[in-house]
Amino acid sequence: MIDLTAQAASKRSPEPLAAKGGDLAYKHRLPTRLWHWTNALAVIVLLMSGLMISNAHPHLYWGLFGANFDQLWFNPPRFPGWTTIPSTYNLALARTWHLFFAWIFAFGLLAHMVIGLANRHIQRDLTFRRADLSPAHLWQDVKDHARLRFPTGAAALSYNVIQKMTYVAVIFLLLPTMIVSGLSLSPGFNAVMHWPLDLVGGRATMRSLHFIAAGLIAAFIAVHVVLVVLAGPYNEIRSMLTGWFRVPPGPVEPAVARERWAPRIIGQYFARVERTAQEDAA
Amino acid sequence: MSGGIGRRALITGAVAGAGTLLSGCDRLGRDERFQRLLRTGEGGNYAVLRLLQDRTALAQEFRPDQRSPVFRMNGVRMPNGDDYARHLATGFADWRIPVEGLVAHPQAYSMAQLRAMPSRTQITRHDCVEGWSAIGKWTDVPLRLLLDRAGVSPQARFVVFHCADPQSNGTMYYESIDRIDAAHPQTILAWALNDELLPPGNGAPLRLRVERQLGYKQAKYVQRIELVSSLAGINGGKGGYWEDVAGYEWYAGL
Questions:
Q1: Is the CB of A260 less than 8 angstroms away from the CB of B41?
Q2: Which SUPFAM superfamilies match (chain A) (predicted)?
C-alpha cells in the first residue's frame, strides 16, 4: 500500500481498512512473496529428500544413541519413490539435495525475520492485540474456522488470530527447531556446541525431533493448501504472486463459497454440521 | 474472476505439476552441472564448519555407563581372502603398517609396537551417514604421534588410509582426511573397543577414529598410511571408496 502510484490508487483500494468487497487491495509485499515461494521450494525439496534419508534407516530412537539392537519407539514406513528425491534409492544424492537446500531454507528464514522486523511486517501483521486474545474472540475464531466461514471485507486483509498463532508458531518455533535439530545431527557441529543435544537428551532424540518437526511442517502445508483451495485459490495464489487480493464481498453465504471450491463430500459434511447447530440453537 | 480456474483443472494441474517436478528432480540430479551446483552446499558446509570449529574443538565424550550395550558392526564384517584369514589366525603378529609418502622418515609399525606406544582412551559416539549411532570406548595410539615421528613434509595435504577389506567392486577400501583432522587430539588409530582387542567386524587389528566426521570416514582394517599432496591419483580421485563409487561427501562433518 505504500508504493502505490496515484493512478493505481484511484482504481484500487490503497487503505486496507477502507477496503470494501470487490476491491483489489495490496495484501502481500514483495519480500513476503519472495520468501514464500523460495521457502516453499526449499521446504518441499527438504521434505522429499528427507524422506529418502529416512528410508536409509527407518527406525527412530530416544536417547544418546540408537542402532538396530536398541529400543526404538517408531518405524517410519518406507516412503515410495514418488514422495522422495531422488525417486530411486540414493542416500548420497538425497543428502546433496538436502544439504544444499538447507542453506536456502536457513538463510531465507533469517532474511525473512530481519526484513520482517525492518519493514514492520512482523510487528504489524503477526503480533497479537489485546482484543485478539479475549476468550470470546478466540472462541468466535475457532467457530468460524470449524464452519469454514472465511473473513470478508477489510477483515480479509489482515490475519485472523488462529492464522497469526499458526504463522508465529511455524516461523518462530517450528522452522527454527528444524534448523537447530538438523544442524545438531552433524558430528562436526557437535564439536562446536553440543548443548542442544544435552538439552533434549542426545542425538537419537534429536533425530526423532527432526523427523517429528518435519511431520508437523508437512501437516501445516496440507492444511494451508486445503484452506487456500477452500478460500478461493485464484485470488489467494494471485495475492501471493502479485500482492493484489480481491476483497471478498460480505457477508458471504459460506455454503456458496464452499460449493464453489470444496469437494462435494466436504460441503455436505459441513452443511450437516451447520444444520445440527441451527437445530440446537432453535 | 475467482472462477477462472476450475476445480478439475486445478487438480489435474497439481497432479501434472507434481509429476513433472518429480521426474524433473531426477533429471536435474543426474545433470553434472546441476550436481556441481548442489555440491557447493558441501563446500559451504566444510568451510563454515571449519570456520566455526576451533581446530582442536573436541567431539563430545561420554561416561562408561552411557555406552551402547552392543556396538553395531557395519559394512564389511570379515574381509575376504586368505591373507586376512592368515593374519587373523596368527593374531596379526606379522601385520605391518607403513607410514609413507611425503614424509622425511618412512617407517613401518607392528601391532606390538603400536600397542606399546602412549595411548589415549576415549568414549565417543559413532554417527553413521544412514542415521543410526552407537557409543563405544576406543583405546588407541594418536595418529599425530606417528605423523610427528615420520616428519610430514610441508607439501603433504592429506593423509590416506589404505585398508585390507576388498569391496564388492574389487577395490580395497580407502579413506582420507585433511591435516587439520589428522593433527586433532581425538584422531586416533584404535586397536581396542570397550577394553577388548578389536573384533574383525569392527576393523581388527586397527581402525581410524576421526571423531568429528561420519562413520564411513572411520576406515577399518588399516594397512598402510600415505601422505599425499593431492587426492587426484587415488582411484576415482574423490578421496575415499564411498566418495568415488556413490558420490558421498569427502568432508563428512555433516
A1: no
A2: Transmembrane di-heme cytochromes (SSF81342)
Contacts of A211 in chain B (CB under 8 A): none
* Helix B7-30 / helix B32-52 crossing angle, nearest 10 deg: 80
Q: Are B189 and B220 in contact (CB under 8 A)?
A: no
Going by C-alpha positions, the residue among B137, B125, B128 that lies closest to residue B214 is B128
Instruction: Calculate how close chain A gets to B147, using CA atoms only, in Å.
Output: 23
Q: Searching chain B, which residue's CA lies closest to the CA of residue A189?
A: B49
Q: Nearest to residue A158, comparing CAs of A128, A182, A187, A185?
A: A128
Count of domains for chain B: 2
Query: Is residue A174 classed as helix, strand or coil in its secondary structure?
Result: helix
Q: In a structure prediction context, what are the per-residue pLDDT tens digits for chain A, which is 282 residues long?
A: 344 443 343 344 445 556 777 889 999 999 999 999 999 999 999 999 999 999 999 999 999 999 998 999 999 999 999 999 999 999 999 999 999 999 999 999 999 999 999 999 999 999 998 888 899 999 999 999 988 888 888 888 889 999 999 999 999 999 999 999 999 999 999 999 999 999 999 999 999 999 999 999 999 999 999 999 998 999 999 999 999 999 988 764 555 544 444 555 566 666 676 677 677 766
Instruction: Please indicate, yes or no, if residue B2 is contained in any of the structural domains.
Output: no
List the single residue in B26, B44, B49 with the smallest CB-CB distance to A86: B26
Domain of residue B24 covers 7-48
By C-alpha distance, the chain A residue nearest B27 is A86
Contacts of B53 in chain A (CB under 8 A): 188, 191-192
Q: B93 with B20, same domain?
A: no
Indicate which of A96, A107, A195 best probes the interface with B, i.e. most B CBs within 10 Å of its own CB.
A96
